[in-house]
Amino acid sequence: MDSPARAGIDGAKAQALLRAELAAFEAANPRSRECSARAAQHLMFGVPLHWMCDWGTPFALHLREAQGAQLVDVDGHALVDFCLGDSGAMFGHSPAAVAQALAHQGSRGLTAMLASEDACAVGELLAQRFGLPLWQFALSATDANRYVVRWLRAASGRPKLLVFNGCYHGTIEDVFVDLVDGRPTQRASLLGQVHDLTRTTVVVEFNDLAALEAALAAGDVACVLAEPALTNIGMVLPDPGYWEAAQALIRRHGAALVLDETHTISCGPGGYARAHGLQPDAVVIGKPLGGGLPCAAYGFSAEWAERAVQAKRSAPPGHSGIGTTLTGNPLAMAAMRATLGELMTDAVYAPMLALSAQLAQGLRATIARHRLPWCVTQLGARSEFQFRVTPPRNGSQAGAALDPGLEHLIHLALLNRGVLITPFHNMMLTCPQTTPADVARLLAAFDEVLGRIVAG
Ligand SMILES: Cc1ncc(COP(=O)(O)O)c(C=O)c1O
């Protein structure tokens, strides 16, 4: 109970609420409990992916179905979903345009290692949306990041990758280097890692131009891989003018700027870069790009694409280390075409952004009513409350404000009141089907939960 995040929270009340919420969850979810017991016999950790144990529930909640902004669990509870598969379902669950495209393509061939006509359209749509001319695909944002870094190391002939402290770009190994007391340190939680990542990954704090320049000065950085705003250690927005200056520095030192828009696509159809007039050398986008189907894409400027193509042409024949057999399959292409063409549009974003602003405002008002020293950050359709007075400016500050115990308590209490938010930190997304009533339900539940744990 002594974490800085707990200022204003009554420890005894929080403990009592946690006991009550765990008991309430257990009583209300017998079918999920049965599924968990059954799964435990043949699934490691009792779930398909071990992260699914990270929700803070005593056993895994099992899904029956999902549509729009709503989930129904196997016990029949309808939940308003503000997690939205941590962005995979940012355009709602099973959006009609994508479901129809999948049904159409589903009986016409799923994978063939051949290009399809949809691929032509997807390339055109990506170029229009993101302003970069040349694209390739992957099955996840993780892989897209991995391939971009490989292409750019090959294209530049430089060995190093630069990332920002507290970043997350999927499970691409290279990014798991943190600043600990100012020193680059490989993340201890990484399993099975046998290479010293600090030899080839440079890490600096976000919003620190001097540190960025010093790190680039050696001239050995192939690319800077960054989210335009950090979203994974809690949200950290760029200072005004930061990216314009950083972009110029990166260019001056001959490195490429890769913007990973996988989460910041919450800002609009062309991501944060388009919304703020940035000109990255490469863009990565995954998660919602297929409307929920696994797919991702990465695009290059003409100059970097040319250098990448030259690197491939001048390499000996054989494996490039880039790609997987099912990449670019016709089903994925159909899904991306539908998503880009019918969902990633200004008209679809407009209500999501408006509701997200209402949500952020409502969170601020609720926090103020309970006199808690917390802040709220909004990035398009994404909002987050953070356990500190002012928005963090870098990963260290954002990391220090995390409190997994308190987060789990709030998330569990919200879930028991019919509202799901992301299991990691305190992020909430709105999708095109989220309604004002959904937002009101979340805010009412949040208000009630805070009322149960504040001191005084
Ligand atoms: C910014 C960013 N990039 C990449 C990824 C990796 O996505 P995936 O797990 O779908 O590969 C994530 C996942 O959270 C992310 O937040």
Could you please describe the fold and organization of this structure?
By secondary structure, the protein is of the alpha/beta class. Helices cover 40% and strands 15% of the residues. The chain has helices at residues 11-28, 30-40, 96-106, 117-130, 141-156, 209-216, 242-252, 271-275, 302-314, 330-343, 346-369, 395-400, 404-416, 436-453; strands at 63-67, 70-73, 78-81, 134-138, 160-164, 177-180, 183-186, 201-204, 221-226, 256-260, 282-285, 296-300, 375-379, 382-386, 419-420, 427-429. Helix 3 runs antiparallel to helix 10 (330-343), helix 5 crosses helix 9 (302-314) and helix 6 packs parallel to helix 7 (242-252). The two termini are 16 Å apart. The mean pLDDT is 97. Bound molecules: pyridoxal-5'-phosphate. Pyridoxal-5'-phosphate (PLP) binds at residues 86, 140-142, 145, 168-170, 227, 232, 260, 262-263, 286-287.
Secondary-structure blueprint of this entry?
Layout: H1 11-28, H2 30-40, E1 63-67, E2 70-73, E3 78-81, H3 96-106, H4 117-130, E4 134-138, H5 141-156, E5 160-164, E6 177-180, E7 183-186, E8 201-204, H6 209-216, E9 221-226, H7 242-252, E10 256-260, H8 271-275, E11 282-285, E12 296-300, H9 302-314, H10 330-343, H11 346-369, E13 375-379, E14 382-386, H12 395-400, H13 404-416, E15 419-420, E16 427-429, H14 436-453
Parallel strand pairs: 3-15, 5-8, 5-9, 9-10, 10-11
Antiparallel strand pairs: 1-2, 2-3, 4-12, 6-7, 11-12, 13-14, 14-16
Helix pairs in contact: 1-13, 3-10, 4-10, 5-9, 6-7, 11-14
